[in-house]
Design brief:
By secondary structure, this protein is mainly α. The chain is built from four helices and no strands. About 0% of the residues are buried.
């Protein structure tokens, strides 16, 4: 074995070869992954009697039908929600003007009275 190794010339490094080998390894890894994905897709979708394709179509149909049923079932709660929202807005529009008027009166009334905030701070800040 030593004699064989002695006959070999020392390994010469070629500039840029390492980066080229890394690039080729990355390409090989990517192509291997792509091959496996395509092979799996083919194996899962094509069978001699097309049962894989039919199963996929049936599953998609069932999923679509379930989604349509969920949409249909959500119509009633959605309508109830919209009705409740409208009633709330109507009630707010009916009550809000009176509340705004009362708050404006209170604000004017408080503006004409002395500011008791400093006194309140002195009372509450005592030990």
């Amino acid at each position: 074995m030593d004699q064989i190794n002695d006959d070999l010339s020392p390994l010469k490094r070629t500039p840029g070869l390492d980066s080229e080998l890394d690039r080729l390894q990355t390409l090989l890894d990517r192509l291997t992954l792509e091959y496996k994905l395509k092979k799996d897709a083919k194996d899962n979708s094509v069978t001699p009697d097309n049962t894989g394709s039919l199963t996929g179509i049936k599953d998609a149909y069932d999923e679509s039908t379930d989604a349509a049923k969920k949409v249909e079932a959500s119509k009633k709660p959605l309508k109830e929600s919209a009705d409740t929202r409208k009633e709330t807005m109507d009630l707010q529009n009916e009550v809000q003007p009176d509340n705004i008027r009362d708050l404006d009166k209170l604000n004017q009334n408080m503006a004409s009275k002395p500011n008791l905030t400093p006194v309140a701070k002195q009372v509450t800040d005592r030990p």
